[in-house]
Amino acid sequence: MSEQVHNRLAVVRAERKVSRQALAEAVGVHYQTIGYIERGQYNPSLDLALKVAGFFGLPVEALFSLEPFQPLTDEVYGRKQ
Question: What is the DSSP string of 34-68?
Fold first, then answer.
C-alpha cells in the first residue's frame, strides 16, 4: 500500500482563485481528479505533481509532502502558546 501524500492544493487554488476545472484542463486530467487529490483520496503521479507545481510556479515540495503540513499561520506568524 502506498503512503499518503499530503497536499496544500486546495489552499493554493483558493489563494490564486483557480477552479478545479481550470487546473484540471491545464494539467490534462478530469476535474474530479483534482478533488480526489485535495481530499487525500488519490496520490498524484510524479508527472502530475510536477505539472501542478509548474502551473502554480511553485516547487513541488510547496504543494506535496509525505509529512503533514503545519498550518500556514504557524509557518508565517509562528505558533503562539
Answer: HHHHHTTSSPPPHHHHHHHHHHHT--HHHHEESSP
